[in-house]
Amino acid sequence: MPRAGLDARTVTEAGAALADEIGLAGLSMGAVAERLGVKTPSLYKHVASLADLQHRIAVLATTEAGDAMRDATQGRAGQEALTGAAHALRDYVTAHPGRYA
């Protein structure tokens, strides 16, 4: 039975945070499990594989970056909107280098 509070989103967010710290290339299921305080096999109840986790992190990053750019362009047009979107994306990538990779 899955641990209370552990679900695909929790595993993905933990993986994304860890990727920001150590880089996406260094990410492993074992490292994510250690971060969450569970045994590695427990993760496979929520994500199919490391590749699946990496895909979920990419989707999360795309969504987060898109949200930041959308928020930065609200009420703006033209050059101001483009500049706002570019700055928002740069700020996101700087804050989350692992998940952006």
Automatic annotation (TrEMBL):
One function term, GO molecular function aspect: DNA binding
Pfam families named among the record's database cross-references: TetR_N
Protein's recorded name: TetR family transcriptional regulator
InterPro entries: Homeodomain-like_sf, HTH_TetR
Superkingdom per UniProt: Bacteria
UniProt entry tagged with the keyword DNA-binding: yes
Keyword annotations of the record: DNA-binding
Span of domain HTH tetR-type: 13-46
Keyword DNA-binding among record annotations: yes
